[in-house]
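User: Structure with zinc ion, tokens only please.
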Amino acid sequence: MIVGLDVGGTNIDAVIIEKGNIIDTIKRPVNHEHLFESIWTALEELFSRHDKENIERINLSTTVSTNAIVENKTSPVGMIIQNGPGLPNDYLACGDENVFISGYVDHRGKLVKDLDQKEIDKAIELFKERNIDSCAVVTKFCTRNFSHELKIKELLEKHFSSITMGHNLSGKLNFPRRVFTSYLNAAIYHTFKNFSNDIKKSMEREGIGAPLYILKADGGTTSLSAAQERPVETILSGPAASFMGINALLHTDKDALLLDIGGTTTDIFFLADGLPLFEPLGIEIGSYKTLVRALYSHSIGLGGDSSIEITNGRLKIGPNREGPPYALGGPKATPTDALIALDKMKIGNREKAIEAMKLLSKELNLSIKDTAQKILDTMGDMIKNEVDRLLAQINSKPVYTVKELLYGKKIKPQLINMIGGPAKFMQPILEKKFNLPCYFPKHYHVANAIGAALAKITTDITLIADTSQGILSVPEMGVYEKINRNYGLDSARQRAIEILIERAVSLGAAKDEIETEIIEESVFNMVRGFFTSGKNIRIKAQIKPGLIGEVKGDKND
Amino acid sequence: MIKMIKAKNKLGLVFFPAFDWAISSTHPEREERLLYTQDQIFEEGIEDIEGIYFYNPAIATEKDIQRVHFCVPDVKSRLTKSHFISAGGAIKAFEAVMDGDVDKAFALVRPPGHHAQRVVYGDRGFCIVNIEAVMIERIRQQNKDLRVAIVDTDCHHGDGTQDIYWNDKNTLFISFHQDGRTLYPGTGFLDEFGGPSAYGYNINIPLPPGTGEEGFLYVLDNVVLPILDEYKPDIIINSAGQDNHYTDPLTNMNFTAQGYAKLNDKLNPHMAILEGGYSIEGALPYINLGIILAMAGIDYSHVKEPDYDKDKLKQPSDITEYIKKLSHMIYKRWQNREKLRADIVKGKDNIQRARQIYYDTDGILENQTQNFKICKKCSGVNTIDSQSDTGYHIFAITIPMDACSDCLDQGYKLYQDTSKFHYTNIYLQDRVNDVYYSK
Ligand SMILES: [Zn+2]
Ligand SMILES: [Zn+2]
Ligand SMILES: [Zn+2]
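Assistant:
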């Protein structure tokens, strides 16, 4: 039995999947003030109907980290930032205290100027004075040489309970994002740790020995203990759960557009040859751009409950939700009212829905039926326009080789897979607008929980082997080792896979389940003077994205 | 809440390092050239700055090349895909400016182009196609009267750009470079002042080895900016070669990343295009970052090379004195250009110019004679008679964009009347109608 649970805006959904069958589901309202209690109540109720012994794993998609950030319920953070030469540093000041220190390494990781320990001592004093207990240390180009981060951590260790180091969070180059990501990680460290402790205690009390994993924004999971070290990876897992859910319920290996049309928003995703598309650098949360690996997703303020207005004789749907649909006692007409008025959706008070349409129809100079139809049609246009815009953006993303520029993959969806309340009713409209076949599954109401349940451990690493310096590094794993001058691409590939597997195991993966792949590799001949001085080998490797299994039918239908 | 960094000027960047293209594996113009620049740009988070936009290159067409060059025997046999992309990258950047999508643009593309002359037998100074010229002439198809000033800050004389705009008054060319007596291509002296229809609009500033920040900025303030003030171009383009840097392996100057950024800031160009620059680790990441920030209007004062030492790079006073005198002389010549031109064209119908051109990269030697007709109504039909030691002997006719009907007719007549008996290839470049013939 695999248990999947997803915390949404209003509900908690959970499912139990056994041998590809959905054998039980539950939906309970969520109390965000008491998130852990809400989650545990839902799980307990679900478990009470089954033998707890049979639980193989529990996958949770929670909002604990996201909410902490969005609602500003974070711990104060002391930042130590080594900016080196380049951009000015004032815009990096994201912590409650920010100490900018001297010293730096260059783009190849060569030490240019050493640390000044006095500056660190001063920072320690300052943070203690301010009762700061969470710190983050980030140095420019630490992905190439993180010795300064390690040294500073050593100095901080005895004074503070949580220290985040930039190089542990991502191997990608983007210093400002690494600073913000490290800040967020430190800021939610204690919140997540409390949550994690609550879970551990409750599992122990209930005698559940199954491993528990947390869903990440990249559609994969990580162990509870790893999430405790890097809670920032667990932000914004909601869209990832719905993405995974759509894929679990509707399989394809083509280029596809995925839509989750909800009450307030429509989430847009893409598949390239059936494989997920990732954000090039990382996800954004609030005003922070991060390096948190994430599925590409784009949300627009358009859903079944979006409020409708008419401005200058034109329909305007969303981006706000001002309450439930008019037919369900809300203040304004919504697309759901259009569906109810057309008798497609059989909920609420149809008379009220018709009344809402009537008001709009006068302004639009249309019949009531045409008004309702026009609302759905406008929704279709809005989705189509946004998708076209996103595709144009994705397909013109910067490339750096002649081969990619001339022959690079362009995404061209062949079909649409979608979930969400209004999805079924939008099907004929979207099929016409996009001129593509459009599918929606039966069990969309628990799709997110299914997606969470079937997610697997994911991770990636960045390896650089610089044979002229004789150094191989993988920042995410803290690897910084010597290599000889003849080190080649084959050895580097092998080492990358080894380290990747090591990392996946440390995140809770079983060794025999791990499927690895190299997603980028390049070798540059380094020439100094007129002679080759070495090779600069760069490799990115990842656990193949995907699902643990697929779902067949379900018994609880 | 964090303070967001924002570009004061909207800046378009075409960053195309062509990681899969090299002249040869140990050549300065190789895959690795922009690798560390990319690392620096990525690590600084340039792509996240509000107001900075990245574009992929367009791909230049054969016609784009023919508008500028006589490729021998033809375009396809002289260019690789990378050349079309490099020129296309410049075009894309310029289009973004002309369309008003951005205020300024910087094309960080390779291979470079400023040594590519009108006739192209092969690669010289790592250039086959003059990407600035291909870009400008493409944009001029829609903006016929565009007045352009090109300021070439590469350490080598931009002899290709000089050749292409030699007789074009609508394109002012100013080149800073290390004195031709001490560096390839050995040209770029004061008396190379333009063809009969554009005499005075080709300005060379040959600087002594060892010139540093002080010297470059002195020339900018005392020669370049005053001339630009008078010329009043619609568009200023910086051929931003970066080999004046104190760490460059091919040259002997003492310029810095700060210096390049300041120069760009003061020059305030609409466009910058990367040219040479082969100190790929110690200079390019910092110079390119400096130029990007300067163009975007973001504080660049913290951009410094690891081994930057202000005192060590201070310009000796004898160089400073020499540059002052030189600047004075150049500016004087610019002011006297009408009179100087009158002396040159007095009593002449045609002016000839014979040159020997060496293609260092491909080891080709060319001998050519250009003939410029002096026409009262237009800048005059002109021809090139050229022979290479690779066995070609070509005759090329250019009808300039502003050609009068006499010159237009004369161009076509020349093309028809010239017999293939003497020549391996004959070309006609009709810029009036944008059509190109060869036989
Ligand atoms: Zn040069
Ligand atoms: Zn004429
Ligand atoms: Zn001849």
